[in-house]
Design brief:
Layout: E1 2-7, H1 11-20, E2 28-32, H2 40-43, H3 47-54, E3 61-62, E4 75-76, H4 98-106, H5 114-124, E5 125-127, E6 141-143, H6 151-162, E7 178-181, E8 186-187, E9 190-191, H7 194-199, E10 208-212, E11 215-222, E12 225-233, E13 236-248, H8 255-261, E14 264-265, H9 267-272, E15 279-280, E16 286-288, E17 292-299, E18 308-309, H10 311-327, E19 339-343, E20 354-359, E21 373-382, E22 389-392, E23 403-405, H11 412-429, H12 432-435, E24 440-441, H13 443-446, H14 451-461, E25 463-464, E26 494-496, H15 511-527
Parallel strand pairs: 1-2, 1-13, 2-10, 5-6, 13-26, 14-15
Antiparallel strand pairs: 3-4, 7-19, 8-9, 11-12, 12-13, 16-22, 17-21, 17-24, 17-25, 18-21, 19-20, 20-21, 22-23
């Protein structure tokens, strides 16, 4: 018998396990479907490129065919390893705009405004730049400047300034707008995942049990109270029991699936799959949304210091491996998306509605497609999409992945902003700081000149930037799943703690906000009677 059972050893689950087990009187069990985070590809920052190409340490999700994207199926990488997506992501540390959280509070979620959540960002953070009005030191989550940033990341920043954007040295400071280099979740030249920050230092605690290879199959209930979890490990079905609460932290795609497999969700949908309805909760799996993104790729064969597949590129990588192994410095400390920014699709916008990620290599199909030669790429994503989709069951088999339908760009306003964003990104890339090198857009985007042509390019190439949220939405309404204390409506002993609870997506990368959510959840749990 444990006090708390945490389902999912991703970013939120690691925070919960590390913080809750700090109390020696509390027994904590963490269930993770994937393996331990032992791979060097996780700890070496540039290893993310190999993991993406071969889909390692992930669940292997794809979307359903997307009507607005020429009926293509998209890619939805989610971490299946201790640390979850914080073990496979690009390590960009972004909190979002202050107004994002005030919007959460205004939608009926007291305690989630910016002034409420900022202390939890600070509690989590150890920023190597030092503490100031916006940052803290002493937290488990290490935030740093890149050790060896590439010269082209600085050139991208220079190009953005030439295009009229401001240079921003801290996207998590007083204002988000501008272009610059990102801070990253690194420590000593290595990835610093939520597992490394919150879990690994405490694995020897006698009151913490971490079970890997444990695929949760359903939540166990006594009436309307959650009392345990059933999981599959190897070929065996096992159960663990919770004396206080079950904490569901499986992420925006798998948390709603597990609720539905357990009889909690839209009654008609559960009945369609022959699942007995424990609690009709129609919002489970609804309101899925994500940042739609499209990439412009430029070919620059003479720029051999950029990442690329060539004889010189291979030699450079081998030298980088030696340098990283010896000193934890050099080109393999990159997160690839070293620079970027937050810009407005139109000057009339009150706040940035677009985010840029500048990549020091040619990125095609999330890096899964082999592309020879050297070059660079620029993502543009929409920060506040209006389109909403869903996660639904493919079957009642708990080992089958759910159906993921982000419904990308279904709202015409989303497409209009993406077209403007594409054009603005091209303007930045064509500024003298970069244009002087003579890089050429790949033909697929270079031929898109009119708005109609750009729209068609977006429909053919847009996809996720890896930030699904909203499927167990927090709020007081009939289509919401959890309340402001993250308790599942109508049930006892069960909370959802991950990005699925976001009422509306944050304006930026979602990893740091997910860590914040879990930090706040720990205080909510400790305050519970």
């Amino acid at each position: 018998m444990f006090d708390y059972i945490i389902i999912g050893g991703g970013s939120a689950g690691c925070v919960l396990a590390g913080r809750l087990s700090a109390d020696p009187t509390v027994r904590v069990c963490l269930l993770e479907a994937g393996p331990a985070d032992t791979s060097v590809l996780i700890h070496c920052p540039a290893g993310l490129a190999v993991m993406a190409k071969f889909e390692l340490n992930g669940w292997g999700f794809n979307t359903t065919p997307q009507a607005a994207l020429n009926h293509r199926q998209g890619y939805q990488p989610r971490g299946k390893v201790l640390g979850g997506s914080s073990s496979i992501n690009a390590m960009v540390y972004i909190r979002g705009q202050h107004a994002d959280y005030d919007h959460w509070a205004a939608e009926g979620n007291p305690g989630w405004g910016w002034e409420d959540v900022e202390p939890y960002f600070l509690k989590a953070e150890h920023n190597e730049r030092g503490a100031d009005a916006w940052h803290a030191q002493g937290g488990p989550f290490n935030v740093a400047d890149l050790r060896s940033p590439h010269r082209f990341s600085h050139l991208f920043t220079e190009a953005g300034v030439q295009a009229g954007e401001v240079h921003n040295t801290d996207f998590n400071g007083a204002t988000q707008e501008g272009v610059g280099l990102y801070q990253v979740t690194h420590k000593n030249g290595e990835r610093h995942s939520a597992a490394k920050g919150y879990l690994t230092p405490h694995l020897a605690r006698p009151n913490l049990q971490v079970i890997t290879g444990a695929h949760a199959t359903r939540i166990l209930f006594d009436g309307s109270r959650a009392v345990g979890v059933e999981y599959r490990q190897g070929g065996a079905i096992k159960q663990v029991r919770a004396g206080r609460e079950v904490l569901l932290s499986a992420g925006a795609l798998l948390s709603p699936q597990l609720l539905m497999l357990s009889g909690v969700g839209p009654a008609a949908h559960l009945q369609q799959h022959g699942i007995p309805v424990l609690h009709d909760l129609p919002g489970v799996g609804q309101h899925l949304h994500d940042h739609p993104d499209v990439v412009q790729v430029l070919d620059a064969p003479e720029l051999k210091d950029l990442f690329g597949l060539s004889l010189s590129g291979m030699a450079q990588t081998l030298r980088g491996i030696v340098e990283w192994r010896k000193h934890r410095t050099g080109m393999l400390t990159t997160n690839f998306a070293e620079a970027g920014g937050f810009i407005k699709s139109d000057p009339s916008e009150a706040a940035p509605d677009l985010q840029l990620h500048f990549v020091i290599g040619k990125l095609v199909d999330h890096g899964r497609k082999t592309v020879f030669g050297h070059g660079y790429s620029a993502h543009v994503c929409l920060l506040q999409p209006k389109s909403r989709g869903s996660v639904t069951l493919a079957s009642r088999d708990p080992m089958a992945l759910p159906l993921v339908d982000p419904n990308f760009l279904a709202d015409p306003d989303d497409m209009a902003r993406m077209v403007r964003g594409f054009k603005r990104t091209r303007e930045i890339l064509m500024q003298p700081a970069l244009a002087k090198f003579g890089a050429k857009e790949l033909a697929a985007s270079a031929s898109a000149r009119t708005d109609a042509e750009i729209e068609q390019f977006i429909r053919q190439y847009a996809d996720t930037i890896y930030h699904p949220v909203g499927t167990c939405r927090m709020g007081p309404g009939p289509m919401d799943v959890v309340d402001a204390e993250l308790r599942v409506h109508g049930l006892a002993g069960l909370r959802v703690v991950d990005a699925s609870i976001m009422p509306r997506i944050v304006s930026g990368n979602t990893n740091a906000p997910t860590v914040m959510i879990a930090e706040k959840a720990v205080d909510l749990l400790r305050a519970a009677p």
